[in-house]
Amino acid sequence: MDRKEKVLRFLSEKSYMPLNFEELCTVLDVPKEDHKELDRILNELIEEGKVVKSKKGRYASAEKMGYVTGVVVGNKKGFGFVITEDDGDDIYISEGNFYTALHQDRVLVRITNVGKDGRREGEIVKVLSHGITRLVGKYEKMDNYGFVVPDDSRILTDIFIPQNQDLGALNGQKVVVEITKHKSLRHSPEGKIVEILGFPNDFGVDILSIIKGYGFEIEFSQQVLKEAKEVPGSVREEDLLGRRDLRDEIIFTIDGEDTKDIDDAVSITKDEVGNYILGVHIADVSHYVKHGSALDREAFKRGTSVYLVDRVIPMLPVNLSNGICSLNEGVDRLALSVRITITPEGEILDHDIFKSVIRSRKKMTYEKVYKILTQQPEDLMEEYKGLTDSLFMLRELAIILNKRRKARGSIDFYIPEAKIILDDEGVPVKVMKREQNIAHNIIEECMLIANETVAEHMFYMDAPFVYRIHEDPSPEKIANLSEFLYNLGYKLKVGKKIRPRAISDMLDEIKGLPEERVISTLALRSMMKAKYSDKNLGHFGLAAKHYCHFTSPIRRYPDLVCHRIIKDMLEGRLDISQEKYQTFVKDAAIHSSDREQAATDAERDTNDLKKAEYMENHIGEEFEGVISSVTPFGFFVELDNTIEGLVRIENIEDDYYYYDEKNLALVGEHKHREFRIGDIVKVTVAAASKETRQIDFILSEDFTEYTIGDFARQKEKQEAKKAAAKKAIKEAVKKKEKKKEKKKQKAGAKGGRKK
Q: Which residue, 663, 678, 703, sits at the end of a domain?
């Protein structure tokens, strides 16, 4: 334990009473020559938000003084929350209690109130670090200065752009701005424009704005491309040393029609007693992307490939991701293989992890595999002759593995994804539910068992490793979920500790019912987020003690790290490299979790944008949907194609409605009509905005020919109100600038008289 940890531990002790610096030196018996060092340590701990210094100069741990650290999540309505680092519930921050913090800033919060329900309120007292240094927004040009209005409505302030810092941007253009001065109590943040994206309606600017907003780079640097170019385009003889040759085995891939970066291939046979021998063969990316190289540093920075509605932003350059690393049909490829022996009951008898060289017999697609397994059409049976037996055997095994997972309590959430079809101009022409069939399930089960097997093996090797973890949900969230389900007529079996099996059983009970989608979503929201960690904390959702991501090293950085460590183990270098990986796996886990979340958010935002754009062409049309969530201001309705819109409470005409928080319902005061989660309703599209990514529905029974005009007028009023507020701010800035100019002129005149 270093000095810093010792000091923090002392200040956090239950018996500790806040002391000033001199008293601390005395109690800790710090010699005079070390006083400066103690002062430095205390200041560092204060900067990190772990220690607080009172007005009287007394020190104590932040926790002891009623302070908590966390990250700000803003809300466009002016309030926000702090996601805490103490594993407690989020802290509500009202509009006047933000101090100088912005969305994503790491802050120190003082708890000001704890409600009867345990909900915490607080005020931000210090910004510890800034989460956003660059952002995307619309430029509003004035005479000698300008403002950037952030696209992200959670950033609750415009960015002031001083004269000569606008890069020549025109009024109304989308730009990337770098913050040069962060917000103070008196002033807005200042920034400079570093990139001009174009006007909002220019082709591709909508999605490009989202990409840049999350800090993703589309292009690779020249150094990275140069290094990628030097990678050989085919497997060389010297690459085969120390590898098992599997090129004669029946190995194939199953992917989407458009997939070009193929990470995984499978094989299957049976032994003489009827056990399945499953082979999962993963692209050996680590052979080409060496630790510490320019390629590796770029892959680390990106963390993941990003799959958006109109493009893929790869983690690795295309000649690697779609070329030498991709397990393409009919060519030699280096792989890291895991071979697992499984009984007909699903018990794992044995496994083997080794380096290999493979040659995929066929790039198969989910759709064709599905047809073979369900319809057996002659043309496909002929096309895939020699592979069909393997497909039927894989289906058998997948069913066994799925039953095994379900038996231990693994949770399968039903959350359909959207498939959005764009035309050549990037305009959405169709939105549908992405279908999942038995072919998808086969590959999913193969990858799950491979990831689990590898994680367990490396855990018992006691090696540094990147695990995929999913921690137990908080008791409070489970209690809320249980209460909600009870009000719907379902029971969640909750003992002293929630078990995955309880949630799995509940989801099985509602399978096929109208409320299945909604309850699955609510159950998912009650869970912790899965993330990467250097600690093996298990995976609650999969009911697995050991789990990692091993199967997608082309598109996920943690998988690449796992491959390197496994190969060091196989080659007997683990003792030497152990120290190198000890710190690195932790950093890789934290950073990869962050980039994964950014990629997920970017995917959601681009989908929401294109869904709203699609519905702009369906104003006035009627749809049937299910109520997906209920709030004090209305309820959201989800259509069968996954599009979601809001029915505002003020637009429900037949009664005055109030929000019943306990039952998550809107209830009519006079007629007692209820709108609850899971109810099926008919709605008409009243408004949609690509810019705000919002869709407004109105109950079809309340829709008239005047409704659309009402919404348009409401929008105009809101825009006028916003414009007036901005004008007032800009006039104030203008006044300030004039005042400054007058002062300068006055000072100049005085200087002239002195001469």
A: 703
**Domain annotation covers residue 506:** no
Pair 638, 555 in one domain: no
CA angle 416, 421, 426 (to 5 degrees): 130
Give the separation between CA 739 and CA 735, rounded to whole angstroms.
Answer: 6
Query: Residue 9 contacts by C-beta under 8 Å, 6 or more apart in sequence?
Result: 1
Q: Which domain holds residue 434?
A: 222-471+528-608
Q: Per the structure block, which two tokens stand in for 345?
A: 């009951």
Same domain, 261 and 376: yes
**Any domain includes 479:** no
| Any domain includes 510 | no
173 and 287 within one domain: no
C-alpha distances (whole Å) from 754 to each of 326, 740, 746, 749, 751 are 77, 21, 13, 9, 5
CA angle 250, 252, 254 (to 5 degrees): 150
Dist CA 282 CA 656 (whole Å) = 59
Bridge pairing between strands 531-533 and 622-631: unpaired
Spacing of C-alpha 439 from chain mean position: 26
The pLDDT tens digits for 101-115 are: 999 999 999 999 988
Each residue's pLDDT tens digit, 403-418: 999 999 999 987 889 9
SS3 annotation, 556-620: EHHHHHHHHHHHHHHCCCHHHHHHHHHHHHHHHHHHHHHHHHHHHHHHHHHHHHHHHHHHHHHCC
Residues facing residue 60 across a β-bridge: 52
**Are 97 and 169 members of one domain?**
no
Helices (H) and strands (E) in the chain — how many of each?
17, 33
Quote the pTM value. 0.87
Are residues 439 and 463 located together in one domain of the fold?
A: yes
Q: Are residues 570 and 675 in the same domain?
A: no
